[in-house]
Protein 1
Amino acid sequence: MNSSAPPRIFSRERRISGLRRARVRQAHRDAARYIMDDMVEDILDRLEFIRMSPERVLVIGDWTGTLALSLRGAGSNVVEHDVATLDEERPIRGEPFDLIVSLSSVDRVNDLPGALLHMRNALADDGLMVASFLGAGSLPNLRRAMIASEPDRPTARMHPLVDNQAASALLQRALFKRQVVDSRRLTVSFASLDRLVSDLRDQGLGSALANVPPPLGKRAKKRADNAFMTAANDKGRVLEIFEILTLTGWKD
């Protein structure tokens, strides 16, 4: 039976460039980092709830270093990687790990089922994998603005996102046991579309599409700005939604 390579939706090189730019931007005092902070806090709460004290841990994608610092403080031996040092679409070296955590990373690979399977294979028996990333309910106002900017021939400018049902199927396909998918919403207010885009870039969440679209022209940008602000409340701010999906699976 012939197997075909997955379509190339994302560029690893663009992901690495976006991460490097985000780290530079984080030097500014007002740089946004609320998505990663929320994910790290959630992971620590989950581990405390299940009373897990893993000995060997792999953390992927946490550019703040906060999660690894907390886990090391609790006695864990932690290995940290990001897209520049770990290709999630290849087998993971240094296994087995008792816990693997992927934050805002695995959703931007071309072979997501393969990446999940690689993480499962890198787990020790009874090991736990937790992956958090932005889900399909995220950024509805930004999506509407991008569609309005080019009403005649819209260009693909935003990442395809995974929903709960697809995430559950992916965990099953990767042979995880006791798999759970849950989601939560983080709502953030913005005074402009430019501020939202700036926050995304601060957090390494800019576009990593392999096919780079041309920049918006002045008229298209104006249409996007106007469409975004149609959702503004009486204080002139748009409430944008970030839906965070968390996939949990055990290796039995």
Protein 2
Amino acid sequence: MFILELGLIGLCIALLPLSWVWVKADDDKFRKLVWLTTFMTLDLVMFGGFTRLTDSGLGCPDWPGCYGTSSPFIAHVQIAAAHLAMPSGPVSMTKAWIEMIHRYFAMAIGVLIIAQTAIAWRARIKRLPLHVSPWWPTALLGLIVVQGAFGAWTVTMKLQPIIVTTHLLLGLLLLGSLAWLAARMTPLPAYEPDAARWRVAALVALVLLVVQIALGGWVSTNYAVLACTDFPTCNGAWIPPMDFHHGFHLWRALGMDGNGDVITQDALVAIHWTHRTFAFIVVAYLVWFALKLRRYASLRRPANWIVIVIVIQFLTGLSNIVLQWPLPVAVAHNGGAAILLLLVVVLNFRIACSRPGRAVLPARDTAAV
């Protein structure tokens, strides 16, 4: 019964953006729905970071509900008892609400993608001009099912770092895929004859960014943000004592090494130092790449934004160390990484499509009405 209640909550949340798209007085409803879903997925990724950073991932220690109910209101007795038994533990009413709000919005995005899938297949069956294959939203629907499974394992496997990191990366894969679909549904800028030569460089930028995000996720899920307490050195040394073997042993419990012992400080330093050091490579490459693309009118705006977001990322990353990991700054750092991913994906799309015959897509569609 509570599964049905959870579904209704997700549907009610999704009805707000669906209603906004429906009442818009134009024919671009499907494109607006995709962009709105992309924006909400970005919000969900940031709220997922907030959930992790507030240690709320086990605020409801079961899945998909909270102590077998659809709301912390209903489960208040069990939550109060768990908090009384362990006041400093992972369960409290505040943490339970943070975790359940994260799940509610994830379900709402699932509803929005189901709506996209239904609209796309209806357009295919009725031969309406939607300008996108229905297999795109169908693949996104499959991806969000896999993402939901990793969300469940995040809870049932007690925040095991590799599971949590994979959950984060799948969320970013969903975000990037939605951004690509949204860009595909949007009229392209004027054709740039020379931009296509940057395709390989754009792909390298995307790969480097994804690796850096994965390293950042590994830092966060292992709570290694404060393993180095100074900058630019790490604990007073350029190359401090580090244990890469245990730090990057993937299959292990939270706070433990591969042998089941408590993870050492040297292992946490290895995790932090690797993320920090690789950041210099990624920043240098992305700044060089963005500055090179500023010569193209169709690429100048996202390229400028990449430089701006990188500066913000550097400042928030440094603040996490100097200011001892303040929550708003840590959430902003997570969000900045997601925004960078969006910008690099958009650049990859525009460069990949920068050739004759694919300069502009129709600006209107009637399949979504």
Protein 3
Amino acid sequence: MKTSIKVLFTAILIIQGLSLKAQNTTGVYLNENDYKDHKLTYASNTDKIQLNEFFGGNTISVINDGKKVNLNKNEIFGYRLANQDYRFYNNVAYKVIDTVGFAIYSREKLVQDTKGYKPATQYFYSVNNKAVKELTIANLTASFPQATNFRYSLQSNFRSDADLISYDHAANQYKIKYLYLEHKRVMASN
């Protein structure tokens, strides 16, 4: 009895350790299919990616097996770092926030304030992982010209572009995603 409890306890510890390592994996998504399949290249359990963002660098550096590998940002889809996915578009990294229906991204940027510059979060989106666009009512309306009820929902449910990132904690989803999925449900039933 004691032996089986020890074996069970050891197995639980091993499984928890493996899941912790898997959760903290860092690496590069070479293309969109790798991202969709969660297939990381140059994967490790340590944060060994240098983004070279200062002065608009167009490469990232990955330490793999003790060797430094440089990759062009415009030739890879994105990367995973600190348990978070990022996508590159025009050599800029965007944090992936939500991918249901269409992707929503964020990016920190310095903006002018009364006492200098301060960091502010800006939001973006893409449809089918194509061009990354600023998350605005006008841009969404232009991206979904055939989705009439979705476009009308945007106009009637959001007063400003800033409202588009509203989150419904009870439903555990962004309100814009609820409207989009409701549109898709209505279209599928017709």
